[in-house]
Task: structure prediction
Amino acid sequence: MPVKINYHLCRGCKACYRECPADVYGWDKERDIPYTAYPDECWHCGICRMECPENAIELTLPPQGLLDLNVRFLSRLSGT
Amino acid sequence: MKTVKTDILVVGGGIAGCFAAIRASELGLSVVLLEKATVRRGGSVGPGMDHVFIGIHPETLTLQDAIEHAQNARKELMDPNVILTVYKEAYKRVLDLERFGVKVREDDGSYFIWKIPERKFYLVSYRGVDTKVKLAEAVRKTNATIMERTMGVELLTRDGTVIGAVAYDVRDGNLTTILSKATLLCTGEAGRQYIEPDGLFVTYHPTTNTGDAETMAYRAGAKLTNMEYIYMDYTMVRAGGGIPGIKPFEKMGHLVNRFGERVLKKEDSAKRGWVMVKEIAEGRGPLYWDFRHLPDDVLKMYEREMDHEYPIAKEWLKQRGLDLRKDRIPLQLVPAAIMGGPIVDERFRTSLKGLYVAGATTPYLMGLTEAAVSGHIAAEDAARYAADAGEPVFEKEKVDPIAADILAPTRRKKGMSPIQVEAAVRSISTDYVGYFKTEGLMQEGLKSLAELREKYLPSLVAGNPHELMRCLEVRNIFDMVEMHIRASLMRKETRLRRVGIMPHYRADYPQTDPAWEKLIVIARENGQMKLTTQDVPRLKEELTCP
Result:
């Protein structure tokens, strides 16, 4: 999971919910705490971490992927 | 539905939108500023920035240099009048940034400038992780009405004049009609058009940017250009991490292929993007930046830049077990954004009365200072226009069908989720367009796109306001990709921009054809996408004065 809230540290200030540009966080009104509503839509920008005053957000970053984008077709032809 | 009246409506609260809102407000106009995320952290500079373009300045470029750059920009299909205007106004906006509290200067009051004399290119490296925070504070000091988590969805027009927009609150699901005397669109670089290597939403620019401005302008009848161009960058970790490619050659890392061979020579640095693609195409990828030989003071600057342009970049390297000082850093090719947008003149007026665009929404500009200059000028021109525009009139019979169309996915019980459809659209651009474009593949892509649109767009389902936002974005991605493919099909030549990182490469037409030094113009006529051509504007004599 890209973003994970450490509820031992979270004080429910709403900074992550307020600032996440991708709207990944939801707000649990009953318990007055944030939750990750759309983790798969995380941009991995780190804004929630920058805004969190309690350092309560852990971010796990993906391994590097590579795309083809029709770029390697020449090498396939030439067998490089 | 609520209705709000304003002199100026600004859609997009990034750099361009903030500068526009501040300027229009200073001129005494009422302003409504819409931002899909927040003004504090929204836009490409939200997580921070480390470099600004400074334009004409005693330490960098003369007016004569700028005129030369502007003239040369015509070959890259850019309006030289827009380019020269940006060069002339850039430094004033950098001073504005300083006025807003952004730390552009070093502690001794000087600018740290990376100078690349062989390309006559200069950039100020600065400590700007809080650029957007400071800018948001400056906007909040004005009387502008800020509507955050609010997306501009469709423009409202009357007799070909733009009179406002329908806005959508992505958290509470409410629609608002905003009536404006003048409207400025600035929603940034249109990403989320291709599949990204690290995940659908791990885009180069903010994942919020889906071409909302370009497509709503298109649907309202504006003329767009340069839609065939894509920005493809080579990154260590998506966006962020400073600007290793924009350094004096001696202070740049070594670019090496998988055999450890250096692939970039000094004389090739003006076509770096193309050199990198060629290396991969010929089978010697992946590529790496190797910074290990650089002197400590240069490495410290790289590290400082990483702390300011998206500081999370350092964490990416750390989690992947990479260290600038110890390891070669592997690169990935990221299809960052489709570059085109509504045609503008040097006052940032579009082909529609009452409609302006600024920043990366324009077909020519990208970058912080470029956005600041265009936002500022667009606001000044819009203020003049608004003075004579008269009150826009609300027409319920026009707004009701737009609202019904927007809300349709909330009324369906079963169908397709927006993310499922988005992945399919973006795989079409990735597989059928890509870097090396060919006629046959793109025709096939166009056919697939039309089938996908017909079959699945009417079946989108939104279970809540957030999902409806994604549905509205998919609609925009369809329009962006269609414009991208059609324009790419029409331009039967190859023409690279900006050191080759903004390509239009036709594998079946690999030469640059001087006869194609013209713009491809897209406009909607009777519901159809029509393409024509138009000459690139010539530099106006009066702009060449100081």
About this structure: Helices of chain A lie at 15-19, 47-51, 73-78. The CA atoms of residues 46 and 59 of chain A lie 8 Å apart.
